[in-house]
């Protein structure tokens, strides 16, 4: 019998205790036994995570934050805590997901295939509409100078079942060897919410690693419930953080073009009442003033 290498899974909970319990239940029911779960409760306001019949203290650690430190900040706390167990891998997984029992082994196998494989990710379906893809790989959009999800909201096609290297993996599901984290470092906390996964993927590639898409690994995502697309916070962070991201990873000519395009799009969204002018102005002002992290 081959001894399974330890995997520490990190879940960030913010006002989603029932989702977290369901995610933990599915992780513990997986066919990979050497798994320890670390839950970072990010100062939840609607009931925090507690130990119970599902979240058992022999398989799970709960870390309580005094304030919401964002997705990257909470994952970084979880990673630091995980390292005391000396795991071979860290699994970053959204708390509003449910996994197939055999989801983990294909990711581990992908990481073991090459020391250049820095992140392994899988195929993600919508939880409520399981015939539809939520993540089926990614591609680079040169017009926006950023990566986009392939297949989102569509039925799967042949390309979504091909194992391949991709430019971006959503932070919804990452398996990362600890040796990679030790070289690349922790996640940037400049963003607080959105684009932190894109930032980390760029750093993975700049450090000579690759991102591997493994369709044999399957999970289901309930979509983002903590903020809600269309909310003021969504528009603020999505706008400001896009500007932060392209300023870090695009050429000067690309940055100028993207700034112009984003300004035009923002103005159109304001005129069409898709975004409040105060929210748009705040996002641009904070970016230009280098007010990063959590919105003041």
Automatic annotation (TrEMBL):
Signal peptide: none annotated. The lineage of its organism: Bacteria, Bacillati, Bacillota, Clostridia, Eubacteriales. Pfam families: Glycos_transf_2 (PF00535). InterPro entries: Glyco_trans_2-like (IPR001173), Nucleotide-diphossugar_trans (IPR029044). GO terms for molecular function: glycosyltransferase activity. Keywords: Glycosyltransferase, Transferase. Belongs to the glycosyltransferase 2 family. This is Glycosyl transferase family 2. It comes from Pseudobacteroides cellulosolvens ATCC 35603 = DSM 2933. CDD domains: GT_2_like_c. Pathway: Cell wall biogenesis; cell wall polysaccharide biosynthesis. Residues 9-184 form the Glycosyltransferase 2-like domain.
């Amino acid at each position: 019998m081959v001894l399974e290498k330890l995997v520490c899974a990190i879940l960030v909970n913010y006002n989603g205790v029932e989702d977290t319990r369901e995610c933990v239940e599915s992780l513990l029911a997986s066919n990979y036994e050497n798994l320890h779960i670390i839950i970072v409760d990010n100062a939840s306001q609607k009931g925090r995570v507690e130990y119970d019949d599902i979240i058992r203290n022999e398989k799970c650690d709960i870390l309580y934050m005094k304030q919401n430190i964002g997705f990257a900040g909470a994952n970084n706390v979880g990673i630091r805590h995980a390292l005391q167990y000396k795991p071979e891998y860290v699994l970053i997984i959204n708390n509003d997901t449910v996994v197939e029992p055999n989801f983990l082994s294909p990711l581990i196998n992908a990481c073991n295939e090459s020391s250049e494989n820095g992140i392994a990710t899988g195929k993600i379906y919508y939880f409520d509409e399981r015939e539809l893809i939520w993540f089926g790989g990614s591609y680079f959009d040169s017009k926006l100078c950023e990566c986009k999800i392939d297949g989102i909201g569509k039925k799967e096609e042949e390309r979504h079942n091909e194992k391949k290297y991709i430019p971006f993996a959503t932070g919804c599901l990452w398996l990362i060897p600890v040796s990679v984290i030790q070289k690349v470092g922790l996640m940037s906390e400049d963003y607080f919410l959105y684009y932190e996964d894109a930032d980390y993927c760029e750093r993975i590639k700049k450090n000579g690693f690759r991102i591997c898409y493994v369709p044999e690994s399957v999970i289901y995502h309930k979509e983002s419930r903590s903020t809600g697309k269309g909310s003021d916070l969504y528009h603020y962070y999505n706008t400001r953080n896009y500007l932060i991201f392209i300023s870090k990873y695009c050429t000067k000519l690309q940055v100028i073009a993207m700034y112009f395009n984003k300004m035009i799009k923002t103005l159109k969204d304001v005129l069409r009442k898709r975004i409040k002018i105060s929210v748009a102005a705040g996002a641009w002002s904070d970016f230009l003033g280098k007010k990063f992290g959590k919105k003041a």
